[in-house]
Give the backbone structure.
Amino acid sequence: MRSMIFNSLLYLYIFLPVAVAGFVLIGKLYERRMQILWLTAMSFLFYGWWNPSYLGLLIVSILWNFSISSLLQTRKIRSILFMGIALNIGLLTYFKYMNFFVDSLHHALGMSLQFQSIALPLGISFFTFQQIAFLTDTYRGEDTKTTWSDYCFFISFFPQLIAGPIVRHSEFFPQIASSKFGKVQSSFMALGISMIVVGLLKKEVLADTFGLMADPAFTIATTGGIPTFGKAWMATLAYPFQLYFDFSGYTDMALGSAYLFGIQLPQNFTSPYRSKNIREFWQRWHRTLSNFLRDYLYIPLGGNRKGAARQGINIMITMILGGLWHGAAWGFVVWGGLHGMLIIGHLC
């Protein structure tokens, strides 16, 4: 069964209208808690539509992290935090990177390893990072106390579940605790519909148009051929715009969908190609991921507090792991390393 992506007719004409109508109707008949349960149920349906078996993985992940966070509320013990993070990293490694590790060993050792390819669960990188951030914030003493139903809603909320943005508890819980939540807000409705339309145009018109320019060269290269000089340059110039309009368009549709329920998700892109340098680029591109890597990896590693040499090492570790997060392939590792070197060069 195919996933219910935002630009599909199933999502736009059936799922989203039903979700909004149910949310509004329940808000007129029942209290806020029932609206949260409705959206959580719809989020599970949204996720399970692709592969019902992986819905169980999402639920187990939510149960595990909520249990660990509850322990951390009363016991700020580092081993409990490590235990919670370890399962998250373990699941992510198994589902996202095991194929990559086995293939790398196969090529390095020159031997055939019998291993069944593992399907990647949708959104596992996003909901894993979101829950690692929540556990870490709880351990650090931030006010993360919440109910099971609110936490489940926070992680599974379908607009941000499979492609971000990565949302912090401080950006989400105050909104659903507000007296305005659950009430129809015409300004949010109008903004939400506008963002969905803009995002759809970005994906279906702009991204696809640039894709028509970029795809021929990539098709030739993947089949072992050598693209012509013109096609190679066309792909080089067109692909960055295809990637940006596709990803930012999907994010716009995610933010627009959330606005329909009165929830404002964080912006992920702020005109990144207008950046003056590589450091500013990463402050504008996939901002919620950049913030996560900064706050939960780069700064804990020492940041810039232990001298220039150590800062350079911390930047390289952060960017290489950030590259690997984008995709399980050596090309992404190299890409992350190149960006790390560019950032170090900018700081020198």
